[in-house]
Amino acid sequence: MPADAKLLLGGRWCASLDAAGAFRAEDPTRAEPIGPAFPISGAADLEAALAAASSVAVELAATPPARIADFLERYATAIEEETDTLVALAAEETALPAEPRLRSVELPRTSGQLRQAARAVRDYAWTEPVIDTATGLRAHRAPLVKPVLVFGPNNFPFAFNAIAGSDFASAIAARNPVIAKAHPSHPATSRRLAELAHKALHDAGLPAASVQMLYHFDNALGVALAGDARLGAIGFTGSRAGGLALKVAADVAGVPMYAELSSVNPVFLLPGALAERAESLAQEFFASCTMGSGQFCTNPGIVVVAQGEAGDTFVATATKQFASATPRPLFSRGVQENLARAVRDLVDAGAGVLAGGSKGDGQGYRFEPTLLHVDAATFLAHREALQAEAFGPVSLLVSGGDETTMVAIAEAFEGNLTATLYRAADGSDDALWQAVAPPLRKRVGRLIANRMPTGVAVSPAMNHGGPYPATGHPGFTAVGMPTAIHRFAALHSYDNVPDALLPPELRDRNPGPVQRRIDGRWTDADVGVSR
Amino acid sequence: MPADAKLLLGGRWCASLDAAGAFRAEDPTRAEPIGPAFPISGAADLEAALAAASSVAVELAATPPARIADFLERYATAIEEETDTLVALAAEETALPAEPRLRSVELPRTSGQLRQAARAVRDYAWTEPVIDTATGLRAHRAPLVKPVLVFGPNNFPFAFNAIAGSDFASAIAARNPVIAKAHPSHPATSRRLAELAHKALHDAGLPAASVQMLYHFDNALGVALAGDARLGAIGFTGSRAGGLALKVAADVAGVPMYAELSSVNPVFLLPGALAERAESLAQEFFASCTMGSGQFCTNPGIVVVAQGEAGDTFVATATKQFASATPRPLFSRGVQENLARAVRDLVDAGAGVLAGGSKGDGQGYRFEPTLLHVDAATFLAHREALQAEAFGPVSLLVSGGDETTMVAIAEAFEGNLTATLYRAADGSDDALWQAVAPPLRKRVGRLIANRMPTGVAVSPAMNHGGPYPATGHPGFTAVGMPTAIHRFAALHSYDNVPDALLPPELRDRNPGPVQRRIDGRWTDADVGVSR
């Protein structure tokens, strides 16, 4: 099969230099190939992308922030104007609902994220200028002046797309060139986005090779690329096995890799909350677990249910919901097969099936919404196997028990993106909260009360991150502006450098109103103005 | 040789559980053993330390900040009160000058650093609270709730000591237990510091195992410990080979390691600066290169000299200074041997000897202040070998050439802690600065004008860090409060959590005057107060 589609390489659309093959997207609802053939890149494409990105890194780093922001805003507008086409492409390639998910939630989130990044560029918020007049030292966050490689996941064709999502926006905001590795499950969506990015880049006057995109390449080539010291950093969202293989290579080369790996996002239902509203909690949980066919990194994969009558009601209600649900399509045969294997492994480790558990008999790549359960003792005895992620509409209920057991369960989790506790409005769960929350707190990036973990707001106070192995570093978030930009920045200190030779945001005269920490106080005044 | 000295383990002074041997410090001026025998720890000591630290991590993380600050301040005061003893011990073990270096510079810097850490704890500056009222999300930096392992270097018996330096102060400020691995070249100094820390810990009422210290252990045991996922992070200052071996193990376990490795700190002398004051620059350079026998991570290891008459004057003056200098003691036989090998390697790679070059005939571990030179073409042809660090009073002069050559030299450097440019006061070098500074800027943590790189101020705008391989991550500094504390912190987001269940600095009511970013604006107001 010859590859019809072109790559965005070195600032122009061109045929693959050394395609190792070609692939097509699939319609997951029918398991049928759709759209054109896209190239699987060989080593020459990767080298060309890296060389081209490296060659513009200095120029991009020296580009005035206003022009970077202009690009991000033009791109956001282009995405919004192209909503119909993008939603149609993504719906076909991913089988995600066009409405509300793609059109009303994910697409506006994506353009909004680009605009938030643009704002952080315009007001220099991500650079966090620090001025110490006593020592003559001034510091800020600055571009890496090296390319950033972004691997996009299968589950967000817009908001985490390697060419449009948070990693992309963050790396560009920090004025680094991006080499985007699109996810092969939605190549046509990615191509359309890349076309919009390319045009916006041209219109904003940024270096042409600042944004490049490849569709697919062999894992071994990816590992070799990740270990190339010409890279400034890597953003990765995807499977744990794939991410860790890349991370080993990146670590050896000294390339910081921000990997968002697996997470089961434990949810604890405390007894008071269950007593107040067991049935509505079951509905909330079912909706969160099965939305988007459960293909979220923040899917509630494990729910610890306080024992008692209300807990039984919760389990019964949830079981009924899962049992009567229609299997919705998954992204691909790979997701379906991994999910079937993961459910089998959970059952082998001691979980019982309350509802679902198999592929069902629908067309395409589907899996029944599946509810599993296990008692606390079994969970604690087989904690490793029973907290393996099952990516899809699957959740494991764990029977809670007394406070000691709840705490032991909390302590059994490895690093996760989120943990959630549902507590009673009357405060009756708060003593238990004080016991269970601390062991969860240290294991997760975001601690949630009375909300399901799905739904990741693009907020400066978001942490879409967490301790290893949820991500590769506990100090960074993949979502939220300006914080997500920090991943793709270096700390630069200037020592005794004359005002005229400093970057604008470190000069005596405030170039904005930029908030800067001068002698320990945040202010938007000029240096030397009494505060 | 039985080990007389005790370890600080699990909150008390005790004999090694499984000493694999013992060692004594040496007087570097005589190459003679001094002081008592200290244990070389076996695996049981390391396991005991890790278990004890892990067991208090939760309690320490929950300790009120005021008590943490109280410990840091008590410890700082104790160090100051013990100045005479500490300076005498350190002078004997390291042969560093008691005055001014140890007594008037390094010791006050060490206690001052502890006090700055205490201040950042009291005013919550290191936690950087962010509050987003629109989404109900609040975030801050928080303890890792896991032990931090600190490896101290040989070259700062106080200010980078594993039990008293910046890594120690930073990790404790973030409320993490510390396992200090003292450097075996100054064990008695480290022991006295640990005694003071232990008493301050007791007086402040912190968990006893919050601070522990081992003197020495086999490299293989260190690598095994670095790869233990029970660790929260590692702070390391030392050799590149040792650091990278630990980093490989830490990376696989997902343990962030902040390694400060080698650096040659290139200095560029631009023609206008040389024309203004070639002789005084030579004196400044000589003093910086030979101070403390050149045993600084920020030693000016390579100096690029613009060609011309003034450059010749600089070279001649510097050569004269180096040639007439007395060899001062180094820390150890290992430093002396590594230095001799490094100089040999530089000569083998094409460098010529202008002055010094051998051990000389003095007593103890000495090396002649050594000045090497090489032309630009040779440097560029053998850039790897010629930028290897020679730890000691050794520097390589590189003949500059035209702007293109200067830029090519700048582009030949790998990641470093610092780069320095000397420019003319009349601005005549500034066009050249604009060409040479950008390639240096992206390669270093701190860019300096008209100051030698030695002398690292403890300032919030300091960056004692830099791109790999100067350190393991370009976004963090090892020196400077509150920024150095960020290395040992996790990002914690709270989502919809009721006010009473939030940490103090994230509640509506400001607990200090704490500076917080509320809805995008830094303020010390309460939430809900119009700003």
Automatic annotation (TrEMBL), chains A, B:
InterPro entries: Ald_DH/histidinol_DH, Ald_DH_C, Ald_DH_N, Aldehyde_DH_dom, Aldehyde_DH_Superfamily, ALDH_KGSADH. It is an enzyme of class 1 (oxidoreductase). The keyword Membrane does not apply. It comes from Luteibacter jiangsuensis. This is NADP-dependent aldehyde dehydrogenase. Residues 502-531 are annotated as: Disordered. Residues 505-524 have a biased composition (Basic and acidic residues). CDD domains: ALDH_KGSADH (cd07129). Residues 23-466 form the Aldehyde dehydrogenase domain. Keywords: Oxidoreductase. It comes from the Bacteria. One of its GO terms (molecular function) is aldehyde dehydrogenase (NADP+) activity.
